[in-house]
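Quiz preparation item.
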């Protein structure tokens, strides 16, 4: 197990280096290349001479690989994601205000999705081809087809304007843990983000359980006298849980992407709305910093999912040896 974890960490580190290379290279393709921020800072004083002096002052005149090495050392040893010249702040100072809020929003949605989707998927597999299975499948297909922004708008219109029972947006300017102190304001955004993931996970769980139910060891368990509940919980559920663990790890990018829409519709000050603002203002360093941070969270989620897969399913040869 330890060797497997080390190997996965090394693989994640290689992927992270590739992401760093891409995010470092992208500013070369903006207007005026890597000297683009100089025109933002200097404004009307952006003469060729002043731009050149500004580039020398900020190390823009160094070769590509020298600047890339400096970029890597700044990230790994100083956690410096760059500087936003439009806001005159470091990128980390900007996004650190919003990251905890988005993480709590995504984690709350992930927890609710898991609690709701897994039992629904298991129940569908147990009662396959029944009215319950068909009804749940129909709802899942509807949720598949509804765009995220439309779902948020419908929920906002239904529960805040026509049936004024829930706040139209979470409280503004609050601490990241306000989701626990004032949960009513977060019902709509968390609920919409949960629905966006619920259909996929429940359908995947249904398919995983159905695949396990037709295995030989399931027929053997039933032949030994195990009840339907025992075979479902003690055999089918655990063996079907492995792929679900991987899916949960892979769902992190989708949750963060869905949070972008949800936060924008419900005017919630999180990482998503900051990404939209940075894109509108062409704040390239902030966009690249957020991209890099999301990539790190995605790699961490995949690593945790792979480790948990080896825990919940001991049959997997995590050491990479043969049978």
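Solution:
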């Amino acid at each position: 197990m330890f060797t497997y974890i080390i190997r996965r960490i090394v693989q994640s580190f290689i992927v992270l280096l590739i992401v760093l290379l891409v995010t470092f290279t992208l500013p070369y393709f903006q207007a005026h290349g890597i000297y683009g921020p100089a025109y933002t800072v200097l404004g009307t004083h952006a003469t060729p001479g002043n731009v050149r002096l500004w580039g020398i002052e900020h190390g823009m005149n160094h070769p590509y690989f020298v600047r890339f090495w400096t970029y890597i050392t700044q990230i790994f040893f100083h956690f410096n994601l760059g500087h936003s010249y439009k806001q005159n702040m470091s990128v980390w100072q900007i996004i650190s205000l919003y990251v905890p809020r988005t993480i709590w929003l995504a984690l709350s949605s992930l927890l609710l999705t898991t609690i709701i989707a897994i039992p629904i998927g298991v129940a569908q597999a147990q009662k396959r081809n029944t009215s319950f299975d068909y009804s749940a499948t129909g709802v899942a297909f509807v949720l598949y087809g509804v765009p995220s922004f439309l779902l948020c708008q419908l929920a906002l219109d239904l529960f805040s304007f026509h049936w004024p029972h829930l706040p139209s947006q979470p409280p503004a300017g609050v601490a990241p843990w306000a989701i626990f102190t004032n949960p009513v304001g977060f019902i709509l955004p968390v609920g919409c983000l949960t629905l966006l993931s619920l259909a996929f996970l429940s359908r995947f769980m249904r398919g995983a359980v159905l695949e396990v139910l037709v295995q030989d060891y399931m027929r053997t368990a039933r032949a030994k006298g195990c009840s339907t509940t025992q075979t479902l919980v003690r055999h089918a559920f655990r063996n079907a849980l492995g792929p679900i663990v991987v899916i949960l790890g892979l769902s992190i990018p989708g949750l963060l992407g869905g949070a972008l829409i949800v936060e924008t519709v419900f005017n919630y000050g999180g990482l998503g709305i900051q990404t939209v603002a940075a894109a509108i203002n062409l704040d390239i360093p902030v966009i690249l910093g957020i991209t890099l941070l999301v990539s790190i969270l995605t790699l961490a989620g995949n690593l945790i999912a792979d480790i948990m897969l080896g825990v919940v399913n001991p049959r997997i040869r995590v050491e990479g040896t043969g049978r």
